[in-house]
Amino acid sequence: MERDKPVMPLTQLKKRKYKVLIQHALRMFEEGAFPSVTELALEAEVSRATAYRYFPTQSALISTVVDEILKPIIAWEPEQTDAEDRVDELLKFAYPQMFKHEGALRAALLLSLQQWAENRSQEMNAKPGVVVNEKLIRGHRKQILSLVTEPLKDRLSAELREKVIHSLSLVYGSEVFMVFKDIWQLDNDEVQSITQWMAKAILNQAKADTAAEAENRVNKKG
What we know:
There is one protein chain. This protein is mainly alpha-helical and 222 residues long. It has 2 domains: 9-69, Arc Repressor Mutant, subunit A, CATH 1.10.10; 70-128 and 139-215. Helices cover 70% and strands 0% of the residues. α1 crosses α2 (37-44), α6 runs antiparallel to α11 and α9 (158-168) runs antiparallel to α11. It is elongated. It comes from Budvicia aquatica.
């Protein structure tokens, strides 16, 4: 008599279902779809209850997918000690990852725009005590840019370093797809090249500002 196969632990079953859902979601996003949780359940051939157990809302779905695809970037550690080299190292590592999952990142941008419009409307018409809908919030960008600019702590004022981080946040992120790809029709290599050039320009300007501030202090003393 053939022995029964061992029953897979529930935790393993959950992990497998989660992986299946993530894989289907990624494929749908890369095909240009913007699936709801129900649509994902149908595509992955799981029950709606199962899908909603993992992703209570579309925002939760997109946020989870983005977290999954950005894991390599979030776990990234710089090898360089100089800030300029660290920024260059980050962009060279991160952009190929983002290009690979451009569809999901664009979905996150679309959701953010939709939520802004919905929240704006609710704020304009809300009654006292009414809470607006949840927002898609991701904070890894602040953490990574703080890490790569850490060597600047001793070279720039806190205010100027913060300005550098704010400026770099427009260079390091999927928002550039809409400008460089959609408007200017640049390819991936061109996007990466120009973002690296912009980052260098930001850092060079910070150096120039620091030098100018130092010169002003000397002139005032004189």
